[in-house]
Amino acid sequence: MQKQKLIALFPEASFGAALNCIGIAQSLRALGAKPVFICHEHFQGLFAEYGFDEYPIPQVSPLSAAEHQHYWERFIERSIPYFDQTPLAQIDSYVAPAWEAIIDTAIEAEKPLQQLLTRLKPDVIVLDNVVLFPAIVNAGCPWVRMVSCAETELPDARVPPYLSGVLASDSEACARYTEQYLKAVKPAHERFSQFLASNGTPPCPPGQFLTDSPYLNLLLSPTPVRYEREQALDPQRYVYLDGCVRREAPYIVPHFPRHNDAPLIYLSFGSLGAADTGMMKRLIDTLSTLPYRFLVNVGAYRDMYTTVPDNVYLDSWFAQPAVLKECDLFIHHGGNNSFCEALYFGLPSVIIPYCWDGHDNAARAEETGVGRYLPRFADPLAALPAALEQLLADQAMQQRLQAFSERMQATRGTDLAAQAILAL
User: Fold this and answer.
1) Residues 85-96: pLDDT tens digits?
2) Model pTM?
3) Which end of the chain is more exposed for a tag (fewer CB within 10 A), N or C?
4) Residues 158 and 96 in one domain
5) Which residues have C-beta within 8 Å of that of residue 184, sequence separation ≥ 6?
6) Residue 297, strand partner residues
7) Number of helices and strands (H, E) in the chain?
8) Residue-range definition of the domain harbouring residue 44
9) Within this chain, do residues 171 and 295 fall inside the same structural domain, yes or no?
10) How many CA atoms lie within 13 A of 270 on its CB side?
């Protein structure tokens, strides 16, 4: 009998990457493979909920998993004041420090990851991260780069700089951002290059912390928002998935004491955005004045909301694909999973980004006519009521989004990814 293929998926410690990989793992399992998850200790339990084996990376530092989680929570809390800055200002205040912290995590994980991969002996490794791990490159099996951030993560002359939130047509803004970014991250890049060299791995290009896989690279970017590239990507090595949405049980919409027959809107800013409880409370105050129903994801901070408006339902966790299937519009931070899932279910987006590739997806949504970009540095709460009214009334946009949705759902990106991985 043919040996069952063992596919090790290693997403970064974020819900976007983790849930994206769960969708791929569901399709891999359906095709007869055995997908397993390598994870950071404080992410244990999430993958087991979907029926997958978990292999946490052993900690080599004296910090416990809870203390590691607290370290990242403190990092986010310290970063909240920078979420209202422009992407250009965030380079020095948030982006460069974030790269330093991410590199610390990669260095700490390297030896335990080498040992774990030697024990697992996977047939293929799928890496959904923003940073390279030499242990994966040197594991002796094919590895896959999963680009679950915005397509801007793969540089091209006709694609805006990663994390910039500018349009490709604005060459002056692109050049200004690139110059400042390369200068700010140079110390982190040099430190990371030394780490790679010490583990027999070539350095990444300037400003980058992850190289393309020589075997296979998977991109979430849906067709309606894909960029025209100056250098076309080789379709044998780069596969566009048109989104990648996991399967969830149906969601039962709760009863709302007020506006129970009004359009249903889902709001989620991811785990990072939920930490900004001051912004979330101001946002909920605005929602309470609007003639719609709102489902609001407040993450691990549910206990901080003592009063809730009658047209708002709060929870610490929603099975997002199941919820979006019931909604009319999605307010989010521009995370790539959220951006793709909005398109997958034919929903217009109102994007209020606070960091990272949320800026890129927000600008692209506005540019391609699939949503509105409300920058946090330009009073988004004042602009929100009119944006919601406009998008909900835009019949032409809704028809376009419905056509996009039908095409994406017919593509079945999770199956496409699983087939490409098994073809290795």
Assistant:
1) 999 999 999 999
2) 0.92
3) N
4) yes
5) 91, 92, 95, 96
6) 268, 315
7) 15, 13
8) 6-244+412-422
9) no
10) 26
